[in-house]
């Protein structure tokens, strides 16, 4: 979960990122075949993707989803460029990936896969990301973190700092899935093309990141949410999610990551029952208390 900075992270702002408790696992077994046989299971242990990849050029056959197999081919080729020894022994491989979470939630299916493949190939996950799909890399950092972090990337130099974020009002924080899986790459491209921000905006986002991390008062935290939402709203010319969809909610609501999809953060003085009942009426039922979702160091 990217709690602060959002789009401005790509321009050098510091961001507060929260690793989630859910995982993706990758299991590798050598076998006597001449291919890479790949099967991906969802949280219900049902197959959502399968394909066979050539050890020669990593191209896929018998793919259940060409878009997914193209992405995996790209990752495998990039690994081989980083390390010429990767899969150079011509030994067949059985690959299985397993998700602990609904892949529609936008909790890092791609980023955790990149991290796992990099571990398997013994290459840099950040270089693998840059060589393939691009992005800030904060989600790669979260895949290897054991708690909240402050993340920064500027001029391709990455800084990762352990964050102390675990405020005394933690029981007043909740996460709700908005029901829309956002295409972050498209939203980021729109932001970069518009270039509707200043160096002051970048500095302000960094200041808010530090303020979020140190905040000890729910009232102050809600004020920070409002200030942060106004900042990003001005830059991307989109109404904040509370004003757009939840004006009558008693508390503050913050978009996370690319606006318009995935999860939102709820900060309210009300109890869990109030929050669940409110969002259930909006037909939003994927709901988590902070400690149910976020990894605590």
Secondary structure elements and their pairing?
Blueprint: E1 15-17, E2 24-31, E3 35-41, E4 47-54, E5 60-61, H1 66-82, E6 92-99, H2 109-121, H3 125-132, H4 138-143, E7 149-154, E8 157-162, E9 173-177, H5 184-194, H6 199-214, H7 218-236, H8 241-245, E10 252-255, E11 263-267, H9 272-281, E12 287-289, H10 290-293
Parallel strand pairs: 3-6
Antiparallel strand pairs: 1-7, 2-6, 3-4, 4-5, 7-8, 9-11, 9-12, 10-11
Helix pairs in contact: 1-2, 1-3, 2-3, 6-7
Description:
With 297 residues, the chain is an alpha+beta fold. It has two domains: 24-132, no CATH class; 165-293, GHMP kinase, C-terminal domain (Alpha-Beta Plaits), CATH 3.30.70. It has ten helices and twelve strands. It has helices at residues 66-82, 109-121, 125-132, 138-143, 184-194, 199-214, 218-236, 241-245, 272-281, 290-293, and strands at residues 15-17, 24-31, 35-41, 47-54, 60-61, 92-99, 149-154, 157-162, 173-177, 252-255, 263-267, 287-289. A five-stranded mixed β-sheet has the order 2-6-3-4-5. A four-stranded antiparallel β-sheet has the order 10-11-9-12, with helices on both faces. The chain has a three-stranded antiparallel β-sheet with strand order 1-7-8. The mean pLDDT is 93.
Shape: globular
In round numbers, the mean pLDDT is 93
Quaternary form: single chain
Low-confidence stretches: none
Largest sheet report: 5 strands, mixed
Strand content: 15-25%
What's the CATH first level of the largest domain?
Alpha Beta
CATH architecture call of the largest domain: 2-Layer Sandwich
């Amino acid at each position: 979960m990217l709690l602060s900075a959002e789009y401005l992270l790509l321009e050098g702002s510091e961001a507060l990122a929260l690793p989630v408790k859910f995982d993706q696992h990758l299991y590798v077994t050598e076998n006597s075949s001449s291919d890479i046989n790949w099967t991906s299971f969802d949280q219900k242990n049902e197959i959502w993707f399968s394909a066979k990849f050539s050890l020669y050029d990593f191209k896929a056959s018998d793919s259940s989803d060409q878009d997914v197999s193209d992405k995996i081919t790209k990752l495998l080729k990039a690994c081989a460029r980083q390390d010429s020894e990767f899969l150079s022994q011509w030994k067949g491989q059985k690959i299985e990936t397993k998700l602990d979470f609904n892949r529609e939630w936008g909790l890092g299916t791609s980023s955790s896969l990149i991290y796992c493949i990099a571990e398997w190939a013994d290459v840099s996950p950040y270089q693998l990301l840059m060589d393939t799909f691009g992005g800030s890399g904060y989600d790669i950092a979260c895949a290897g973190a054991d708690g909240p972090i402050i993340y920064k990337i500027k001029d391709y130099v990455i800084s990762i700092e352990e964050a102390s974020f675990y405020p005394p009002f933690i029981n007043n924080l909740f996460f709700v899935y908005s029901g829309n899986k956002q295409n972050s790459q498209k939203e980021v491209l729109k932001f970069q093309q518009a270039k509707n921000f200043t160096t002051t905006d970048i500095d302000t986002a960094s200041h808010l990141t530090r303020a979020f991390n140190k905040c000890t008062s729910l009232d102050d935290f809600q004020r920070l949410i409002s200030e942060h939402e106004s900042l990003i709203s001005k830059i991307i010319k989109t109404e904040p999610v509370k004003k757009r969809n939840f004006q009558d909610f008693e508390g503050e609501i913050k978009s996370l990551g690319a606006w318009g999809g995935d999860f939102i953060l709820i900060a309210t003085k009300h109890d869990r029952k109030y929050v669940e009942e409110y969002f259930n009426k909006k037909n939003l039922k994927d709901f988590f208390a902070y400690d149910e979702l976020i990894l605590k160091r």
